[in-house]
Design a protein that fits this description.
By secondary structure, this protein is α+β, with helices and mostly antiparallel strands. The protein is 28% helix and 37% strand. This is GNAT family N-acetyltransferase.
């Protein structure tokens, strides 16, 4: 039976998540304390056992037809003993039907592995979201153009202004979306940093620790990205920083429209990916 989770399913949901996504206990605890909602968790149950599930997280997408609601499919997983029974197929189809009933324009997702792009194509998903990716090395001297500082909730309007300049087709972010991401990177990552010049935020970066002497800016945005990158490297005393931002070189995610909208290339990120 396919249904939305109830409050009493929480322990079973966490158990299924842990079995399918082992090895990141800190993020799991953060997710279930800050993001998880039973009313958007679609589950497949058989004989009282949760066999598979997806999170149907609500977002707004701006594309060629304006701003419309979409579903982000996240945490799609099936218990090992129930795989190869088309349970995920049925869950996705059920999510599409719910999207249409609720007036959502599309379903989006980020495949966890390269081969999954082909798997999701059979359900109508097409690659549409791309990023650029490069690595910078700490320079001996630091350019002093701008002041590095930690980002807070008060910076969200400035963050959104820079983000909205990244690409025409993009996922929109609400105040709470920004707040959740800042909280996530402050709690589990290296933090969120901005470069300020003459009182104006010119660039920002959401940064993870990425191994010994390495950092990863999962999203960097703004006109002074290189200056910001060097400031972060010097501040955190690291050798390399991987920069990921809007671009067209590396595919990141897919979209399945529920109508005849043409697929365009766009950008999203910071989707708990």
């Amino acid at each position: 039976m396919i249904r939305f989770a109830a409050q009493q399913d929480l322990n079973a949901v966490i158990d299924l998540w842990t079995r399918c996504f082992p090895g990141d206990e800190a993020f799991r605890e953060w997710f279930f304390a800050n993001i998880y909602r039973s009313d958007v968790t679609l589950v497949d149950e058989e004989d009282g056992v949760l066999c598979a599930m997806v999170q149907m997280l609500p977002y707004q997408l701006r594309d060629s037809r304006g701003v419309r609601p979409v579903t982000y499919i996240y945490g799609a997983c099936t218990a090992p003993e129930y795989r190869r029974q088309h349970r995920m197929d049925r869950l996705l189809q059920a999510s599409f039907e719910l999207d249409v009933k609720q007036g959502r324009a599309a379903s989006i997702l980020i495949p966890q592995e390269e081969w999954l792009y082909g798997f999701y194509e059979q359900f109508g998903y097409r690659t549409a979201f791309y990023v650029s990716d490069r690595i910078v090395t700490c320079a001996e001297t630091q350019n002093t153009a701008g002041t590095l500082r930690r980002i807070t909730g008060a910076d969200i309007p400035a963050l959104n202004r820079l983000y909205m300049q990244a690409q025409d087709m993009r996922l929109l972010r609400s105040q709470s979306d920004w707040e959740q991401q800042i909280a996530l990177f402050d709690a589990l990552g290296a933090g969120v940093y901005g470069l300020e010049q003459d009182g104006t935020l010119t660039a920002y970066a959401f940064v993870w620790n990425d191994g010994a002497d390495k950092l990863w800016a999962q999203e960097i945005c703004g006109v002074q990205q290189d200056e910001l990158a060097q400031a972060i490297l010097h501040q955190l005393h690291c050798r390399t920083l991987r920069l990921t931002g809007a671009g067209a070189k590396q595919k990141l995610g897919c979209i399945r429209y529920h109508d005849d909208t043409s697929v365009q290339n766009g950008y999203f990120n910071l989707l708990l990916n």
